Amino acid sequence: MPAGFVRDVVERVTPSVLAARAAGREQHEEILAADIRLTVDLLLERSRVLAERVAAGQLAVVGLSYRLADGSAQLVASHGLSRAASLTR
């Protein structure tokens, strides 16, 4: 196990990696998406303010996967996106 900051990062992504593998997902992109989904869910679980604003349609929390190679981004997870988007139109 690495030390310092790298160890902290490894410890934080390990639950997502293990959950993805337990679900039969082995590809890098699948594991990354599982980590993004978990992170978005944790933001709402651990922040009452965010959860309340999403529920009220005032905020959206989204998780994106960004590819440096081509500059593209893909939506992986969202909470409140449709309600928040409809309020801005």
Order of helical and strand elements: HHHEEH
Give the terminus-to-terminus CA distance: 49 Å
What is the CATH architecture term? 3-Layer(aba) Sandwich
Q: How would you write the strand order of the largest sheet?
A: 1-2
| Helix fraction bin | 55-70%
Work out the radius of gyration.
15 Å
Which structural category fits the helices and strands?
alpha+beta
Question: Major sheet, described briefly?
Answer: 2 strands, antiparallel
Beta-strand proportion: 15-25%
Instruction: Briefly note the CATH topology name.
Output: Beta-carbonic Anhydrase, Chain A
Q: How would you briefly describe this protein structure?
A:
By secondary structure, the chain is an alpha+beta fold.
Walkthrough of the structure:
By secondary structure, the chain is of the alpha+beta class. It has one domain (4-88): Beta-carbonic Anhydrase, Chain A (3-Layer(aba) Sandwich). The protein is built from 4 helices and 2 strands, in the order αααββα. The chain has helices spanning 4-22, 28-46, 48-55, 81-88; strands at 61-67, 72-79. A two-stranded antiparallel ribbon has the order 1-2. Helix 1 packs across helix 2 and helix 2 (28-46) packs across helix 3. The radius of gyration is 15 Å and the shape is globular. The mean pLDDT is 86.
